[in-house]
Amino acid sequence: KMTQQMRDLQLAQARKPPGPSSPNAAKRLYRNLSGKFRVNYTSFDEGSLVGRGEKEKLRKSYLFQSNAALFEAVELQDLDRVQEMLKHYSPEELDLNTPNSEGLLPLDIAIMTNNAPIARALLQAGAKESPHFVSLESRSLHLSTLVREAEQRVNELMAQVVNEAPNADCSEKEKQLKAWEWRFRLYKRMKAGFEHARVPDAPSSVHLSVASSSSLQVTFWEPLSVNSAIVTKYKVEWSCSPSFSPLLGEAVIDKLKDLHFTIQGLVSGTAYHVRVAAYNMKGWGPPQASVPPFAIPSNWREYDGRAPRRRGQAEALDHLLGQVKTVHQHCICHEPCKNQPQSRKHSVSKSLKHLFHPGSKFLKTLKRGLYLTAIFYKDDNILVTHEDQIPVVEIDDTYSCLLMQDFLWLTKVSCMWDEILWLRQCVTVSQSSCSCILQTRFKMLLAISQMQGLLGIQDLGQVFFEPIKDKQGNILIVTLKEVKTNQTFESVRWVPICKLQTSRKSVSSPEEPTALDTLLISIQDKLAYHQRSSHALSPGLYLGYLKLCSAVDQIRVLVPEQLPNILCHVKIRSNPNISREEWEWLQKMASVEEPVPTEPETDRSQNPLFQELQVAIKELMTLVNIPLQEAKDFRLYSQEVLDFGDQVSFLLLLPPSDDVCTAPGQNNPYTPRSGFLTLPLQIFELGEEK
Question: Which residue, among 569, 570, 567, has the nearest Cα to 678 in the 3D structure?
Answer without folding.
Answer: 567
